[in-house]
Amino acid sequence: MITRRELLQVGAAAAGLGLSSVGRVAAQQRLTQDELLKFDSVGNVTLLHITDIHGQLVPVHFREPSINLGVGEARGLPPHLTGTDFLAKFGIPARSAAAYALTAEEFTELAKSYGKIGGLDRAATVIKAVRAERGAGRVLLLDGGDTWQGSLGSNMTRGEDMVACVRLLAPDAMTGHWEFTYGEERVKELIDRLGFPFLALNVRDTEWQEPVFEPYKLFDKGGVKVAVLGQAFPYTPVANPRWMIPNWSFGIREDDVRATVDKVRKDGAELVVLLSHNGFDVDRKLAARVPGLDVILTGHTHDALPEVVKVGKTLLIASGSHGKFVSRLDLDVRGGEVKDFRYKLIPLFADAITPDADMAAAIVKARSPFAQELAREVGRTESLLYRRGNFNGTFDDLICDALLEQRDAEIVLSPGFRWGTSVLPNSPITVEDVHNATAMTYPQVYRMTMTGERLKEILEDVADNLFNPDPYYQQGGDMVRCGGLGYTIDIAAPMGKRFSALTHLKSGKPIEPTKEYVVAGWASVNEGTQGPPVWELVEKYIAAHKTVRVAPNTSVKVIGT
Amino acid sequence: MTGLSRRTALAVGAGGAALALIGNIHSAVAAPKDAEADIAKFTGGKTAEKGKITIDLPEIAENGNTVPLTVSVDSPMTAESHVTDILVVADGNPRPGVATFHFTPLSGSAEATTRIRLATTQNIVVVAKTSDGKLYTGQKLVKVTIGGCGG
Questions:
Q1: What is the pTM of this model?
Q2: To which H or E segment does residue A168 belong?
Q3: CATH topology of domain A376-559
């Protein structure tokens, strides 16, 4: 498979040098744009996939998870592999560029050598190069959504900055999730300005159960009739505030997917692509149950896989997050069937890929109203700050510490989002860093009392959204992060029985079911939640402490893996 | 039930199915046993065969207070062979009985749409009775969640 070979090439170059003794320049010299773009094209159609950019216009540090557990049939299967298991599965040498892009292994050290990854200007360079090589008439660029949210700029402009820049990439279609957290009116307004369709076959109005968006679009690419079906995040009104989109109803709607596949096949589609924000495990199940899907471009769960996962005849692609990658899938489609394919997950090493000038200018323009604020240093960190992973990340521990102190709480609940970039140790923390971990439209930090019983109920509820053995009942975030609270979780147990040994960390005492605790938290889905925005409290906390250090979290014990 | 939308009422009316709602506010604690009793009463104690039934329900409810439900039974709906009644039971509700739909060959198809209220995560069980004395059943788990924290 080309992917593995190419990654090995990239990897071997750096791995052979022994990174402990090599500086950044040497590592970069071995990583070239030509090498990253190299691809032996095949067939008549090329799909380019970007997804879950989360408002990141410029290159980022983003540490992939070191814990990403699968349950049920997904246990131990990609994407539920991390660290050395991941490297072994895909034949990636330790300390290679690919190891840095795809795992958390030695992240800090490798980040210093390989630098940041991503940036829409680098993505533009890659996309333009592929279109030039293949001819635009053979290429479809598809955006899986979670594009308009996740940074200070996107939050301040309510998605405007992202739409302005992504438009320049000229995608052929997109679908969405966090887009909906700007509310119905804003979503419609921005869609009107896209210049390409927003597809979602699984969204209906609550009153009449009629489709809200175009369900699919047919394209003629390389002489092949291609149908692209859109699938928005099925649980948007459950995982995010329903009151922001009261008239729209979502769901996996497997029967509707099946019916749409049948319809487009009947209308002559030779290649059927699902542009999905279901999450990887949901799509794996869907692929096994709905015949006729040739390709699923997965999203939502932020998995970056260097190889295609095949389920029956369906090819599943996982293109990562935060703008780190562009996926390229070449397909040879003949007689309504995929005869051959070749795939590459292209990591956008920022130092190796020349930024596209037009996009770079657009990004500067989009960021200019906030440039000074974004760069403002609020303090420093001695520890690596990251979020991604099933349980508490260091950035979340920092947020929890901030809310414990700033809201004088005993316990903090902080959402297990999968978006949020990383900050290297012994670096400044900027306003941009804080907002990359917090920027959203319902940031109020509440303060209330909850009984021990209620706390356990919440933990059980959230854990079941992550560890229910049936993917159709999962929502795809990570576990809610807890401050001041320790626990043991058995991920294999049924709902209601996963949690034990709940402990109030400050006193060291067990959480009592009937006792009331003062709880602070953010990202409540309830309308009318009162409190200051989370970024304000995090900034205050960092400023007050000047330099923060986050000790390793030992309060969560995981069993049943 | 005030949760019936105009379209639902129209659909039910046009389909020629008569609808009897038996779900009501009730303080009793939920028990699958009550659901079993409702089903036994409907089937006369006979075992229903799995299949023929399509239940359109979300896997996770967006709002437990009003969950859209469409149920249909694969049937020729002729004078000789048609669905006469469909029972819908929510096994975790304080009072599990949700609705019974009645059909005739003139209904055209054995399909009904309504909205139901679910107190908690539970199974929705559907049982259909046909004119030639057959019983079919199907069920679907609907999760009612606190929400939040996704992404």
A1: 0.92
A2: helix A160-169
A3: 5'-nucleotidase;  domain 2 (3.90.780)
